[in-house]
Amino acid sequence: xxxxxxxxxxxxxxxxxxxxxxxxxxxxxxxxxxxxxxxxxxxxxxxxxxxxxxxxxxxxxxxxxxxxxxxxxxxxxxxxxxxxxxxxxxxxxxxxxxxxxxxxxxxxxxxxxxxxxxxxxxxxxxxxxxxxxxxxxxxxxxxxxxxxxxxxxxxxxxxxxxxxxxxxxxxxxxxxxxxxxxxxxxxxxxxxxxxxxxxxxxxxxxxxxxxxxxxxxxxxxxxxxxxxxxxxxxxxxxxxxxxxxxxxxxxxxxxxxxxxxxxxxxxxxxxxxxxxxxxxxxxxxxxxxxxxxxxxxxxxxxxxxxxxxxxxxxxxxxxxxxxxxxxxxxx
Length: 331
What we know:
Elements (H helix, E strand, L loop, with lengths): L4 E6 L3 H7 L8 E7 L3 H11 L3 E3 L2 H5 L6 E4 L3 H13 L3 E5 L6 H14 L3 E4 L6 H11 L6 E9 L19 H17 L4 E8 L5 E9 L5 E7 L8 E5 L2 E5 L8 E6 L5 E4 L8 H13 L9 H18 L11
Parallel strand pairs: 1-2, 1-4, 2-3, 4-5, 5-6, 7-10
Antiparallel strand pairs: 7-11, 8-9, 9-10, 11-12, 12-13, 13-14
Helix pairs in contact: 4-5, 5-9, 7-9
InterPro entries: Gfo/Idh/MocA-like_OxRdtase_N (IPR000683), Gfo/Idh/MocA_domain (IPR050984), GFO_IDH_MocA-like_dom (IPR055170), NAD(P)-bd_dom_sf (IPR036291)
Keywords: Oxidoreductase
GO molecular function: nucleotide binding; oxidoreductase activity
């Protein structure tokens, strides 16, 4: 591994634009290349962000010897094929959420990562936000006792357009993969993997899920109730209930700055922890430090958690009648 971790961006879309702007806050790391299936898009992205090289294919950046780690920000169904090819080439990975379009696809990528011994992490920036780190520390210290239940929601109002990526099945459309991954991952982070998943909701004419309500049951009375929607806006708040208090993570919980700690018998305590930059730097620092230390997984966002989240999403999708597929002929 080079002294400076050299990053490549796969998929120069909106999220990649935001992520790349946070690299000035990441020591010993630099974005050097971008890839798109459109050379013109790759060239424009490279020019905007001062990158050294622009590839007109995903295969091109995978073969680039001067890239250490790839940030995959293409539509969900394309992650699987790109990640497998990159891992076989020895490239470390940060893969946008949802990690893949299907549970089987996620299992295959994780198995390849472990077999290859190559670092791979889901880009769940929420787990690295300073406010979320502080919440986890307080819970670990017993601030609200044992966590017994959670309520988490995240939804936006979007006008249906069958060719837009949010609604097109071939692009991984639907609320679950785009927004539901946040509410499921937040619950999994604090409660672990549920024994039972019950889902209800509705579909768009394209077959993508418009909205979903999930009940996660843990077999010992613990539970999580989760809402996600592309049909209507939701507050984007998380409430974590313990045996001696609760925590309100204020909107939007997936990149919060403030939460309120309610201890039994005490006045509410408002706590603010602001992120660095736009908030993406924290996950970029994690990957960079893991690579420099020779680790193959993150302890904060381990691959086992990614698989658990993907399994919940898959079970919910199946109950709703949603049929996601991994893309082929991506490279």
